[in-house]
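Quick one: examine this chain and its backbone structure tokens and tell me how the chain folds. Here goes:
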Amino acid sequence: MSTTQMLYDMITEMSEEEKKALLLLLRAPKARKQKAEDVDAVMGILHEYANPDLISLEKSASEEEAEEQERNFWEDYKNETPRC
């Protein structure tokens, strides 16, 4: 299934409030000055979907990924042929 199809399926199942929250999130980098109540609404909706058991796993997963990328970088660097 394509990403576009997955997004379409997800959006069609959302309430109007959830769609507005998604739009706020997508526009966030462009619109730095958002109303506090809009941000609170988005945070409330996201909180409904949050799984507290996974939050600590997400942090450790991102740290592990960064460490792996660094290891891969240095391994690739060591395996390069000298350019002298």
